[in-house]
Design goal:
The chain is an alpha/beta fold. It contains 11 helices and 12 strands. The chain has 2 domains: 129 residues, NAD(P)-binding Rossmann-like Domain (Rossmann fold, 3-Layer(aba) Sandwich), CATH 3.40.50; 182 residues, Rossmann fold. Bound molecules: glyoxylic acid.
Length: 327
């Protein structure tokens, strides 16, 4: 490969077929499969790197940027970009790319899976069956909550929130939502009623979080919010862990402030295996798999490649979270 090709750091090992678009376009140095910080073998290449292709577990911080004076693009393979110091990138004129759209439906599917599993106590029922506690057809065993006629509160009516609303409608749910800047598709107007967060908290039978993590949403669902919810309510978080105050959630679940929670995301992530939340029968936790389908993850990688290549060519990124760099 000619030496003048730009150097790109890919923070994790990814399937080759996901990165096909990069072939012949750049020199690549790749990190290990499960990195939660920039691997030392990548760190030493920062001074020459012109592009970084990151996953959401890698903090792209001021410190990292200060070691990369030649960086021209950061491409995050995620729709969320709270791992990136976007303001610091903008100050340096570095565009940041993300991967919206392609993971909307997959994440909405997982949200419904969590909602249904928590509503119908699937983890407990499955465990009981497996461990010999299914002794008869029990008229009072494993009783759960109905979706039909229940109120679903959605916090964050973006693309994913709207896709969840569409699905929930098919289950006969009434949908209310709060969002300072909602997605204005006609389907949202028809499907859901916008209310204040206070009303969403008190009226919801199911509360599903789909907002980005930012200073306004960090710790949004704290003790006060959880105490405002119905004791029968079920909380679903497929957004970002720190939107919910973890210690407050533990109290809420163990003291009966709410009935159950189903979490695709936690704070911290990964949640250590000895965390007390795992011991609660009314808390279902899965390891941040909202976008984990074959199709979705491949499309996310392809979009991230498109952003990366556009940035290396000095073109506008197809999906740029800080378009002010172009002004
Ligand atoms: C996943 O959480 C994403 O932001 O893409």
């Amino acid at each position: 490969m000619p030496a003048e090709l730009p150097l790109v750091l890919i923070t994790h090992t990814l399937p080759e077929e996901w990165l096909r678009k990069l072939a012949g376009q750049c020199l690549i140095v790749t990190g290990p499969p499960d990195a939660d910080h920039l691997a030392p073998e990548l760190d030493e290449h920062l001074p020459e790197a012109e592009g970084v292709f990151s996953l959401l577990t890698i903090p792209v911080s001021e410190e990292l940027l200060s070691k990369a004076p030649n960086l021209r693009v950061v491409s995050n393979m995620a729709v969320g970009y709270d791992n990136i110091d976007v303001a610091a990138c903008t100050r340096r004129g570095i565009p940041v790319g993300n991967t919206p759209g392609v993971l909307t439906e997959g994440t909405a599917d997982l949200t419904m899976a969590l909602l249904l599993a928590a509503a119908r106590k699937l983890p407990e029922a499955s465990k009981d069956a497996r461990e010999g506690r299914w002794t008869t057809w029990s008229p009072t065993g494993w009783l759960g909550a109905d979706l039909n006629g229940a109120t679903l509160g959605i916090v964050g009516m973006g693309k994913i929130g709207a896709a969840v609303a569409r699905r929930a409608k098919a289950f006969g749910m009434k949908i209310i939502y709060s969002d300072p800047n909602p997605h204005h598709e006609i389907e949202v107007v028809l499907l859901a009623m916008r209310k204040s967060l206070d009303k969403i908290l008190t009226e919801s039978d199911f509360l599903s979080l789909h907002c980005p993590l930012n200073p306004e949403t960090s710790g949004l669902i704290d003790a006060q919010a959880l105490q405002a919810m119905k004791p029968s309510a079920i909380l679903i978080n497929a957004a970002r862990g720190p939107v919910v105050a973890t210690k407050d959630l533990y109290r809420a679940l163990s003291e009966g402030w709410i009935a159950a929670a189903a979490l695709d995301v936690t704070d911290p992530e990964p949640l250590p295996s000895d965390d007390p939340l795992y011991a609660l029968p009314n808390c279902l936790i899965v390891p941040h798999i909202g976008s984990a389908t074959h199709y979705t993850r491949r499309r996310m990688a392809e979009l991230a490649c498109d952003n990366l290549l556009a940035g290396l060519r000095g073109e506008r990124l197809p999906n740029c979270v800080n378009p002010e760099v172009y002004q």
